[in-house]
Amino acid sequence: MALHATSSRDSVRAAAEGEPEWAGDASRRPAAFYSAVFAQIEEVGWERLVSGKGDGGVSCLVFRILDDQGRNHLLEITLPMNYPSSPPCLVADVPYLPELQWSKGSRLKDVVCQFQEHLKILQDYWSIMDDIDKVLWVVDPTKPTFAMSHRCIALGDDCYLLLHVNARKPRSLPEVRFLGTDGKLDRLITNWRKYCKKWSADKKFHENLSTVLDFALPPPPSVNIEDDEQVDCGICYAKHLPIDDELGTHSGGTTDYTCENPSCSRAFHSVCLRDWLRAITTTRQSFDVLFGNCPYCSDPVAVKITDR
Amino acid sequence: MTSSSSPSRKALSKIACNRLQKELAEWQVSPPSGFKYRVSDNLQRWVIEVTGAAGTLYAGETYQLQVDFPEHYPMEAPQVIFLNPAPMHPHIYSNGHICLDILYDSWSPAMTVSSVCISILSMLSSSPAKQRPQDNDRYVRNCRNGRSPKETRWWFHDDKV
Is a pLDDT exceeding 90 seen at residue A82? Predict the structure, then answer.
């Protein structure tokens, strides 16, 4: 079954939150609805629930879901008036949403499971986008969201390449547009047409790009400066973790977790945050994820406990 | 001086050592007013002089705080006690133990020695009377053999002082 458009979600929410509607009996949901939803949240895990809004706090639920790489995702699930006969609507920061499989017996945990499966599929796409952001000189967006599949890459001499990566087939030839006035562009456009068949799904994205353009792409401006800008961890006060075999892949690593509260945005080593969450009794664990609060602003945080 | 309570202390971890060096460096650049770090080469135990703020019951009086850091600081709170003689205060026991939530349950790595010191001074400054806690004798009797205040199950009831 296909997903509902986002606009329908807004109207559902408006209906649920609007005072006059709330007062009228017409839009009130049966008591069984609430107990069913509570039971279904329980199945997903209360610690994953970030917020609940509208209609007694259950018609628009936001869950926190971590993917295999420890990226934090927020999944907003809106329950329509005739839920569960009609499927819920999903909103999330992803390039495209999964086709929700919904039947009479489906529950919230099925939605979460399907979304998790969807995140698995998207891992390859995100690792490619991360790679682009790391290796190439990306001028826009400076703070990409998970959903953004475009990148504007500087080629030097005021020339830019606007990339559109196909999130469904991230390893395929991307859509490109060349921007700039320099004569250099003509050569690059010619090369692109000539060599685009050389694009190979087995090679790294930036290697493919260099091959097809027959041009050495400039790296992001001075990586060293970036290291100076690298911020200290709010727990250990260091930029880098100690070099220590016990820390495995994290040995010597930089901060890799930022509090999502925009007025906090404290950076941490996920290792430090995990050690702190393990040290206190109020932390909750669900599978391999620890749920607790930011030591600075107390907003919810979640870290994976697995990868050493 | 009180026999310093040192619960089988392990050396500081690399992370703890690094963080304490940074805290000390920051302290030396801008120490919290009213406090003086007594220079020593022991990073794991700081002794800090605190002078009562003007206009309070403790104006001009000087006391000494002893701060001991656990191996895994800042994942665990430091142990903070007053050295003898401890100020007379409704939340400070005669053996130097301090009833202050941030030293125990409410500790967070977002705090620092400096911020803890400021909290302690503010606790002194808001004191209504120079007196010991009601259960002082019983508590101190139970703490013999240099038990750490971190082993006490504190009950934080008074949010006024």
Answer: no
Asked if A236 and B108 come within 8 Å (Cβ–Cβ), the reply is no
State in words which class domain A34-121 has.
alpha beta
pLDDT of residue A272: 95
Contacts of A235 in chain B (CB under 8 A): 19, 74-75, 109
Q: Where are the domains of chain A?
A: 34-121, 136-213, 240-304
Cβ of residue A231 closer than 8 Å to a chain B Cβ: no
Q: Residue B78: pLDDT band by 50, 70, 90 thresholds?
A: very high
Instruction: Please identify, in words, the CATH class of the domain defined by B12-141.
Output: alpha beta
State the ipTM, two decimals.
0.84
**The pLDDT value given to residue A53:** 86
Task: Note the pTM of the prediction, 2 decimals.
Answer: 0.55
Select the residue from B17, B26, B73, B75 to test the A interface by mutation, using most A Cβ atoms within 10 A.
B75
Cβ pair B76:A242 closer than 8 A: no
* DSSP per-residue codes, A225-283: HHHHHPPPPTTT--SS----GGGGGGTT----EE-S-TTT--EE-HHHHHHHHHHSTT-
Fold designation for A240-304: Herpes Virus-1 (3.30.40)
Please check whether residue B106 touches A, CB under 8 A: no
Torsion of CA A276, A278, A284, A286, to 10 degrees: 120
Residue of B nearest to A233 (CA): B19
Domain A136-213 bears CATH identifier 3.10.110.20:
yes
**What number is the average pLDDT over the span B30-38?**
93
